[in-house]
Design a protein that fits this description.
The protein has about 350 residues and is an all-alpha fold. It is about 60% helix and about 0% strand. Strands 1-2 form a two-stranded parallel sheet. It is globular and about 60 Å long.
Length: about 350
Protein backbone atom coordinates (compact mmCIF):
# COMPACT_ATOMS: atom_id res chain seq x y z
CA UNK A 1 0.00 0.00 0.00
CA UNK A 2 2.85 2.39 0.79
CA UNK A 3 4.58 1.72 -2.54
CA UNK A 4 1.29 2.05 -4.41
CA UNK A 5 0.47 5.31 -2.66
CA UNK A 6 3.85 6.79 -3.58
CA UNK A 7 3.43 5.73 -7.22
CA UNK A 8 -0.14 7.05 -7.55
CA UNK A 9 0.62 10.36 -5.84
CA UNK A 10 3.70 10.71 -8.05
CA UNK A 11 1.64 10.07 -11.20
CA UNK A 12 -0.52 12.98 -10.12
CA UNK A 13 1.97 15.52 -8.81
CA UNK A 14 5.13 14.91 -10.87
CA UNK A 15 3.54 15.74 -14.26
CA UNK A 16 1.96 18.82 -12.70
CA UNK A 17 5.35 19.86 -11.38
CA UNK A 18 6.88 19.48 -14.83
CA UNK A 19 4.10 21.58 -16.36
CA UNK A 20 4.31 24.31 -13.71
CA UNK A 21 8.10 24.47 -14.09
CA UNK A 22 7.60 25.91 -17.56
CA UNK A 23 9.81 23.28 -19.15
CA UNK A 24 7.06 22.08 -21.50
CA UNK A 25 6.79 23.82 -24.86
CA UNK A 26 4.99 21.18 -26.94
CA UNK A 27 1.20 21.08 -26.97
CA UNK A 28 1.22 17.30 -27.31
CA UNK A 29 3.56 16.90 -24.35
CA UNK A 30 1.28 19.16 -22.31
CA UNK A 31 -1.76 17.04 -23.20
CA UNK A 32 0.14 13.82 -22.48
CA UNK A 33 1.21 15.06 -19.05
CA UNK A 34 -2.37 16.03 -18.17
CA UNK A 35 -3.51 12.55 -19.27
CA UNK A 36 -0.95 11.05 -16.90
CA UNK A 37 -2.36 13.32 -14.19
CA UNK A 38 -5.79 11.84 -15.00
CA UNK A 39 -4.42 8.32 -14.62
CA UNK A 40 -2.85 9.30 -11.31
CA UNK A 41 -6.15 10.83 -10.17
CA UNK A 42 -7.96 7.56 -10.90
CA UNK A 43 -5.21 5.61 -9.14
CA UNK A 44 -5.44 7.79 -6.04
CA UNK A 45 -9.22 7.61 -6.06
CA UNK A 46 -9.40 3.82 -6.32
CA UNK A 47 -6.16 2.65 -4.75
CA UNK A 48 -5.40 5.12 -1.94
CA UNK A 49 -8.30 7.36 -0.96
CA UNK A 50 -10.91 4.60 -1.19
CA UNK A 51 -9.27 2.42 1.45
CA UNK A 52 -8.34 5.38 3.63
CA UNK A 53 -11.89 6.75 3.82
CA UNK A 54 -13.22 3.27 4.55
CA UNK A 55 -10.77 3.11 7.45
CA UNK A 56 -9.12 0.05 5.91
CA UNK A 57 -5.81 1.49 4.70
CA UNK A 58 -4.26 1.18 8.16
CA UNK A 59 -5.15 0.17 11.69
CA UNK A 60 -4.07 3.68 12.68
CA UNK A 61 -7.05 6.04 12.30
CA UNK A 62 -4.75 9.05 11.97
CA UNK A 63 -3.07 7.52 8.93
CA UNK A 64 -6.48 6.80 7.41
CA UNK A 65 -7.58 10.38 8.00
CA UNK A 66 -4.35 11.82 6.59
CA UNK A 67 -4.45 9.71 3.42
CA UNK A 68 -8.18 10.36 3.12
CA UNK A 69 -7.26 13.97 2.37
CA UNK A 70 -5.87 12.70 -0.94
CA UNK A 71 -9.53 12.84 -2.05
CA UNK A 72 -9.45 16.59 -1.48
CA UNK A 73 -6.14 16.91 -3.29
CA UNK A 74 -7.71 15.48 -6.46
CA UNK A 75 -10.57 17.97 -6.34
CA UNK A 76 -13.44 16.35 -4.40
CA UNK A 77 -14.38 16.55 -0.72
CA UNK A 78 -13.81 13.62 1.62
CA UNK A 79 -16.70 14.22 4.03
CA UNK A 80 -19.33 14.36 1.28
CA UNK A 81 -17.85 11.25 -0.34
CA UNK A 82 -18.06 9.33 2.94
CA UNK A 83 -21.78 10.01 3.16
CA UNK A 84 -22.41 9.26 -0.51
CA UNK A 85 -20.30 6.10 -0.60
CA UNK A 86 -19.85 4.64 2.88
CA UNK A 87 -23.29 5.50 4.24
CA UNK A 88 -25.66 5.50 1.26
CA UNK A 89 -24.07 3.30 -1.40
CA UNK A 90 -22.90 0.59 0.99
CA UNK A 91 -26.08 0.67 3.07
CA UNK A 92 -28.63 0.87 0.22
CA UNK A 93 -26.81 -0.71 -2.73
CA UNK A 94 -28.89 -0.54 -5.94
CA UNK A 95 -31.94 0.80 -4.09
CA UNK A 96 -33.38 3.64 -6.11
CA UNK A 97 -33.54 7.10 -4.47
CA UNK A 98 -31.13 6.02 -1.71
CA UNK A 99 -28.01 4.78 -3.53
CA UNK A 100 -26.46 7.83 -5.18
CA UNK A 101 -24.41 5.63 -7.52
CA UNK A 102 -27.58 4.84 -9.47
CA UNK A 103 -29.27 8.21 -8.94
CA UNK A 104 -28.50 9.99 -12.20
CA UNK A 105 -29.61 12.96 -14.32
CA UNK A 106 -32.85 12.46 -16.24
CA UNK A 107 -31.05 11.54 -19.47
CA UNK A 108 -29.44 8.49 -17.79
CA UNK A 109 -31.27 5.47 -16.40
CA UNK A 110 -29.42 3.05 -14.12
CA UNK A 111 -32.39 1.34 -12.48
CA UNK A 112 -35.62 -0.25 -13.77
CA UNK A 113 -37.43 1.69 -11.03
CA UNK A 114 -36.65 5.07 -12.61
CA UNK A 115 -39.09 6.64 -15.12
CA UNK A 116 -38.17 5.90 -18.74
CA UNK A 117 -38.15 8.54 -21.45
CA UNK A 118 -37.49 8.43 -25.18
CA UNK A 119 -33.84 9.42 -25.05
CA UNK A 120 -32.98 6.43 -22.85
CA UNK A 121 -33.25 4.11 -25.85
CA UNK A 122 -29.92 5.55 -27.01
CA UNK A 123 -28.15 5.69 -23.65
CA UNK A 124 -25.98 2.64 -24.34
CA UNK A 125 -24.29 4.80 -26.99
CA UNK A 126 -23.94 8.16 -25.25
CA UNK A 127 -23.50 7.20 -21.57
CA UNK A 128 -19.76 6.68 -22.05
CA UNK A 129 -19.28 10.33 -22.95
CA UNK A 130 -20.96 11.43 -19.73
CA UNK A 131 -18.89 8.92 -17.75
CA UNK A 132 -15.86 10.83 -19.02
CA UNK A 133 -17.32 14.09 -17.74
CA UNK A 134 -18.41 12.68 -14.38
CA UNK A 135 -15.43 13.79 -12.29
CA UNK A 136 -15.63 17.34 -13.65
CA UNK A 137 -18.84 17.64 -11.65
CA UNK A 138 -16.81 16.41 -8.63
CA UNK A 139 -14.53 19.41 -8.78
CA UNK A 140 -17.19 21.98 -9.61
CA UNK A 141 -20.74 21.69 -8.26
CA UNK A 142 -21.49 18.15 -7.07
CA UNK A 143 -20.02 18.50 -3.56
CA UNK A 144 -22.13 21.60 -2.86
CA UNK A 145 -25.30 20.02 -4.28
CA UNK A 146 -24.88 16.79 -2.34
CA UNK A 147 -23.89 18.55 0.85
CA UNK A 148 -27.16 20.53 0.75
CA UNK A 149 -29.18 17.41 0.02
CA UNK A 150 -27.53 15.42 2.80
CA UNK A 151 -28.11 18.30 5.20
CA UNK A 152 -31.80 18.35 4.25
CA UNK A 153 -31.95 14.58 4.84
CA UNK A 154 -30.54 14.99 8.33
CA UNK A 155 -27.26 13.24 7.52
CA UNK A 156 -25.32 16.35 8.53
CA UNK A 157 -26.49 17.50 11.96
CA UNK A 158 -26.57 21.22 12.70
CA UNK A 159 -26.25 24.39 10.66
CA UNK A 160 -22.78 25.13 12.03
CA UNK A 161 -21.38 21.84 10.80
CA UNK A 162 -23.06 22.38 7.43
CA UNK A 163 -21.52 25.85 7.12
CA UNK A 164 -18.10 24.57 8.17
CA UNK A 165 -18.28 21.97 5.41
CA UNK A 166 -19.11 24.67 2.85
CA UNK A 167 -16.05 26.72 3.85
CA UNK A 168 -13.85 23.62 3.77
CA UNK A 169 -15.08 22.65 0.32
CA UNK A 170 -14.35 26.14 -0.98
CA UNK A 171 -10.88 26.12 0.60
CA UNK A 172 -9.91 22.71 -0.74
CA UNK A 173 -11.16 23.53 -4.24
CA UNK A 174 -9.15 26.76 -4.26
CA UNK A 175 -6.04 24.72 -3.45
CA UNK A 176 -6.90 22.19 -6.17
CA UNK A 177 -7.52 24.79 -8.88
CA UNK A 178 -4.32 26.59 -7.96
CA UNK A 179 -2.07 23.75 -9.14
CA UNK A 180 -4.40 22.26 -11.78
CA UNK A 181 -5.26 25.47 -13.64
CA UNK A 182 -4.00 28.77 -12.21
CA UNK A 183 -0.27 27.96 -11.88
CA UNK A 184 -0.08 26.24 -15.30
CA UNK A 185 -1.73 29.30 -16.88
CA UNK A 186 0.58 31.73 -15.07
CA UNK A 187 3.84 29.78 -15.32
CA UNK A 188 3.64 28.56 -18.92
CA UNK A 189 3.34 30.24 -22.28
CA UNK A 190 0.28 28.23 -23.27
CA UNK A 191 -3.02 30.13 -23.67
CA UNK A 192 -5.60 29.58 -20.93
CA UNK A 193 -8.02 27.81 -23.30
CA UNK A 194 -5.40 25.17 -24.10
CA UNK A 195 -4.74 24.55 -20.39
CA UNK A 196 -8.50 24.25 -19.92
CA UNK A 197 -8.77 21.69 -22.74
CA UNK A 198 -5.90 19.69 -21.22
CA UNK A 199 -7.62 19.87 -17.83
CA UNK A 200 -10.84 18.47 -19.35
CA UNK A 201 -8.88 15.70 -21.10
CA UNK A 202 -7.33 14.76 -17.78
CA UNK A 203 -10.73 14.46 -16.15
CA UNK A 204 -12.18 12.57 -19.09
CA UNK A 205 -9.60 9.84 -18.55
CA UNK A 206 -10.31 9.76 -14.81
CA UNK A 207 -14.09 9.85 -15.15
CA UNK A 208 -14.31 7.16 -17.82
CA UNK A 209 -12.00 4.77 -15.99
CA UNK A 210 -13.57 5.19 -12.56
CA UNK A 211 -17.15 5.08 -13.84
CA UNK A 212 -16.51 1.85 -15.72
CA UNK A 213 -14.98 0.23 -12.65
CA UNK A 214 -17.83 1.17 -10.32
CA UNK A 215 -20.76 0.85 -12.73
CA UNK A 216 -19.75 -2.59 -14.02
CA UNK A 217 -19.91 -3.75 -10.41
CA UNK A 218 -23.61 -2.96 -9.94
CA UNK A 219 -25.48 -2.00 -13.13
CA UNK A 220 -25.34 -5.42 -14.73
CA UNK A 221 -27.86 -7.84 -16.27
CA UNK A 222 -27.59 -10.31 -13.37
CA UNK A 223 -27.51 -7.89 -10.43
CA UNK A 224 -30.66 -7.19 -8.43
CA UNK A 225 -32.35 -3.83 -7.90
CA UNK A 226 -34.35 -4.60 -4.75
CA UNK A 227 -37.33 -2.58 -3.62
CA UNK A 228 -38.33 -1.98 -0.02
CA UNK A 229 -41.82 -2.95 1.09
CA UNK A 230 -44.34 -0.31 2.15
CA UNK A 231 -42.70 -0.15 5.58
CA UNK A 232 -39.25 0.46 4.13
CA UNK A 233 -37.86 -3.04 4.76
CA UNK A 234 -35.67 -5.02 2.35
CA UNK A 235 -36.33 -8.76 2.12
CA UNK A 236 -32.77 -10.04 2.53
CA UNK A 237 -30.26 -9.33 5.27
CA UNK A 238 -27.28 -7.08 4.56
CA UNK A 239 -24.78 -9.71 3.42
CA UNK A 240 -27.21 -11.47 1.06
CA UNK A 241 -28.27 -8.09 -0.30
CA UNK A 242 -24.65 -7.20 -1.11
CA UNK A 243 -24.09 -10.53 -2.86
CA UNK A 244 -27.19 -10.09 -5.02
CA UNK A 245 -26.46 -6.49 -6.05
CA UNK A 246 -22.71 -6.69 -6.68
CA UNK A 247 -20.53 -8.34 -9.32
CA UNK A 248 -16.80 -9.01 -9.67
CA UNK A 249 -14.76 -8.96 -12.85
CA UNK A 250 -11.32 -10.08 -14.04
CA UNK A 251 -10.40 -11.92 -10.79
CA UNK A 252 -7.18 -13.29 -12.35
CA UNK A 253 -5.87 -9.94 -13.64
CA UNK A 254 -3.24 -8.91 -11.10
CA UNK A 255 -2.14 -5.79 -12.98
CA UNK A 256 -5.65 -4.41 -13.33
CA UNK A 257 -6.44 -5.33 -9.73
CA UNK A 258 -3.30 -3.54 -8.52
CA UNK A 259 -4.15 -0.34 -10.36
CA UNK A 260 -7.85 -0.14 -9.45
CA UNK A 261 -7.36 -0.90 -5.76
CA UNK A 262 -8.77 -4.43 -5.85
CA UNK A 263 -12.16 -3.12 -6.95
CA UNK A 264 -12.50 -5.97 -9.42
CA UNK A 265 -13.31 -7.86 -6.20
CA UNK A 266 -16.36 -5.74 -5.46
CA UNK A 267 -18.21 -8.60 -3.76
CA UNK A 268 -15.45 -8.95 -1.20
CA UNK A 269 -15.28 -5.20 -0.76
CA UNK A 270 -19.02 -4.87 -0.12
CA UNK A 271 -19.01 -7.74 2.36
CA UNK A 272 -15.93 -6.50 4.22
CA UNK A 273 -15.31 -2.80 3.46
CA UNK A 274 -13.13 -2.53 6.58
CA UNK A 275 -10.54 -4.95 5.11
CA UNK A 276 -7.68 -3.51 3.05
CA UNK A 277 -8.02 -4.35 -0.65
CA UNK A 278 -4.66 -6.15 -0.79
CA UNK A 279 -6.40 -9.07 0.95
CA UNK A 280 -9.41 -9.42 -1.37
CA UNK A 281 -7.72 -11.90 -3.69
CA UNK A 282 -6.96 -14.20 -0.75
CA UNK A 283 -10.44 -14.15 0.80
CA UNK A 284 -12.32 -14.41 -2.54
CA UNK A 285 -12.07 -18.26 -2.85
CA UNK A 286 -13.37 -18.64 0.72
CA UNK A 287 -16.35 -16.40 0.00
CA UNK A 288 -17.14 -18.15 -3.30
CA UNK A 289 -16.93 -21.59 -1.68
CA UNK A 290 -19.25 -20.50 1.14
CA UNK A 291 -21.69 -18.89 -1.32
CA UNK A 292 -21.83 -22.10 -3.37
CA UNK A 293 -22.36 -24.16 -0.23
CA UNK A 294 -25.41 -22.14 0.83
CA UNK A 295 -26.82 -21.39 -2.63
CA UNK A 296 -26.09 -17.67 -2.43
CA UNK A 297 -25.31 -15.83 -5.70
CA UNK A 298 -21.66 -15.02 -6.33
CA UNK A 299 -21.56 -12.90 -9.47
CA UNK A 300 -18.39 -12.51 -11.50
CA UNK A 301 -17.20 -11.86 -15.05
CA UNK A 302 -13.99 -13.44 -16.30
CA UNK A 303 -12.57 -10.29 -17.89
CA UNK A 304 -12.96 -6.53 -17.65
CA UNK A 305 -13.99 -6.42 -21.32
CA UNK A 306 -16.79 -8.94 -20.77
CA UNK A 307 -17.98 -6.87 -17.79
CA UNK A 308 -18.02 -3.69 -19.90
CA UNK A 309 -19.94 -5.52 -22.65
CA UNK A 310 -22.48 -6.75 -20.12
CA UNK A 311 -22.84 -3.23 -18.75
CA UNK A 312 -23.43 -1.99 -22.31
CA UNK A 313 -26.16 -4.62 -22.67
CA UNK A 314 -27.74 -3.58 -19.36
CA UNK A 315 -27.77 0.09 -20.39
CA UNK A 316 -29.55 -0.95 -23.59
CA UNK A 317 -32.08 -3.02 -21.64
CA UNK A 318 -32.75 -0.21 -19.18
CA UNK A 319 -33.34 2.11 -22.11
CA UNK A 320 -36.18 -0.10 -23.35
CA UNK A 321 -38.01 -1.72 -20.43
CA UNK A 322 -40.87 0.07 -18.76
CA UNK A 323 -40.61 1.46 -15.25
CA UNK A 324 -41.33 -0.92 -12.40
CA UNK A 325 -43.29 0.91 -9.69
CA UNK A 326 -41.64 1.87 -6.42
CA UNK A 327 -43.59 1.64 -3.14
CA UNK A 328 -44.03 4.88 -1.25
CA UNK A 329 -41.90 4.59 1.87
CA UNK A 330 -40.42 6.96 4.39
CA UNK A 331 -36.84 8.18 4.20
CA UNK A 332 -34.35 5.70 5.73
CA UNK A 333 -33.70 6.37 9.37
CA UNK A 334 -30.82 5.56 11.63
CA UNK A 335 -28.09 6.20 9.06
CA UNK A 336 -24.88 7.27 10.76
CA UNK A 337 -23.93 10.94 10.64
CA UNK A 338 -20.62 12.03 9.17
Amino acid sequence: MIVKSIIMLSLFFVPLGIIISGAVTSVWVLLALYVVVGIGTAGIGMGVMHDALHGSYSKNSRINKLLGYSMNLIGAYDEVWKIQHNVLHHSYTNIVDHDDDINAPSFLRFSPHVPKNRIHRFQHFYTWFFYGLSTISWVTTKDFIRLKRYYDKGLIPGKNKYRNHIFKIIGWKMVYYSYMLILPIVMTSFPFWLILIAFVCSHFVTGLFMSLVFQTAHVMPNTDFPLPDTEGNIENDRLIHQMATTSNFAPKSRILSWFIGGLNFQVEHHLFPNICHVHYRKIAPIIKETADEYGVPYLSKKTFLSAVCSHFSMLRTLGRIEMQPVPQVAEPVGAPHV
